[in-house]
Amino acid sequence: MNADVAAIVRDRGSSPLLERVSVAAPRAGEVLVRVLATGVCHTDLVAIDGGVGYPFPAVFGHEGSGIVEAVGEGVSRVRPGDRVVLSFASCGACTTCREGHPAYCERFAALNHRPESDAIVVAATGEPVSTAFMRQSSWATRVIAHESNTVPVAGDVPAVVAAPLGCGVLTGAGTVLNVLAPAPGSGILVLGSGAVGLSAVMAAKASGCRDIIAVDPLPARRRLALDVGATVAIPPELVAETIATVGAVRHVLDTVGTQESTDAAIAALAPHGTIATVALRPGSNRISVPQGRLLWGRTIRGVIEGDAVVERDIPRLVDLWRAGALPVEKIVTVYPLDAIGQAIDDTRAGRTVKAVLLTPDGGEEAPGAASPLALLDQLRERRFGDDDLARLWRTLPPVEPAQLRGRWRGWAVTRGHRAERMLERSGWYGKHFHTDDDVDPIIVRTRDGDLVADESFSRGGASLWRVERDGVLTAAMVYDALPIIDSFTRLSEDAVFGVMGGKGTADAGRDFYFVLERDADGDPSP
Ligand code: CXF
Ligand code: ZN
């Protein structure tokens, strides 16, 4: 078995680094889980920034999915070999737990936010590390969870889909299904189209809402919101105008939690309607509401983790996913665990909605995904169908235009596409990005073996931009004289996955995918 590693945050605000660790055996009530995939949630970022009071060094991560390796005394919910999702822990014995609302467990903080220091230690030195974040600290290859936050799921759910069911998706979809419970035909306003908001949109659609108004300042997120079921997607400044057109709504889910979003929510809310506020913000985050508007039967209430009962609701989310009603894969971007720093940067910058980290074991389950080299080989062998290529492109991380500087060797992935034949005929070698404004979109090898820019096909040069495609805001090459855009996601430091878009680029409805590999001899900078 491979040695265990964990992504350890050494100091407040710093990027996690993978370190070799030793993991303890499970004690009574505990479960040892081999992690396949684990998400990045906004709460992890708050914790990295010191907002949860975890002493450093610490391991965060609270959307784990994996396989049970061993159970401690008295554990009956799961057995070794079970596929599981890790969520939040609860005591099961306090009044709110017994009333069926474990997300408000009297011991929530004690069980989920009390650091332990003996579950994992740094392998080389025995140095203790704070773990048990949300009773899992799942940014690691193996972790100790508790029976109460470990939920068995069927083996057909990909680990990258299962992981975010543990928190982000549970919070958004759970709040709609368990708390707002919109009647078919009703209206809902969802403020913020991150992972929580988009999951809420999916659940609202599944509940038969008629008007689903998604709000986000980022155009890429609004596009995604429309893709997963929003009927309208608008920037925050258009909320009042939109509500004036469609009418006040009975349901609001506020994932933002500012005074501004609260004002927008209460202004949009119909009498007897409910606002669910779910954002975690630093400090007590005081907000005020106009009492006169509340009077008319309006409710504003906080919701943690979708008010879920994890063993009831996570299987329910799996059923919705299987029925196509919770397309979690549309919001997921997959990173290998060792790219966690990049995943966090992309999440903070809003380039990625739900980053999911794949451990090496997770990569074996989803071949290639955790190992760029294996993935490149599979692309070279053309093992993927058209749908797989589209899914793969969308779930890879975005590329910054600056990362493309230099010369790249290109090769076609989509079989039998018109573009492949054209490129072959032209003797295509690759592309050369001198600067963002100076790009040779097609370089070819001449008979003498020289590499030259060929403008017979491209009719000029091209430039680099950040453009959104399929919900991914990423580097794209726009031809100067053709209505064609090549968009790129990241296979590795030295390889990107391209797709050709724009007028007339599809061949019988099929998009053209290709790979660019960095050319070691190419001029690396302008
Ligand atoms: C959080 C919300 C605030 C309390 C702890 C759990 N949810 C998700 O990350
Ligand atoms: Zn979370």
Automatic annotation (TrEMBL):
Domain of life according to the entry: Bacteria
Q: Which residues form the Enoyl reductase (ER) domain?
A: 13-357
Matches recorded under SMART domains: PKS_ER
Question: What cofactor does its activity depend on?
Answer: Zn(2+)
The entry's protein name is Alcohol dehydrogenase catalytic domain-containing protein
Q: What Pfam families does this protein's entry cite? A: ADH_N, ADH_zinc_N, DUF4334, GXWXG
Q: Which CDD domains match?
A: benzyl_alcohol_DH (cd08278)
Which family does the UniProt entry place this protein in? Answer: Belongs to the zinc-containing alcohol dehydrogenase family.
Instruction: Cite the entry's keywords alphabetically.
Output: Metal-binding, Oxidoreductase, Zinc
Single Gene Ontology MF annotation: zinc ion binding
Lineage here is:
Bacteria, Bacillati, Actinomycetota, Actinomycetes, Micrococcales
Q: Which residues form a coiled coil?
A: none
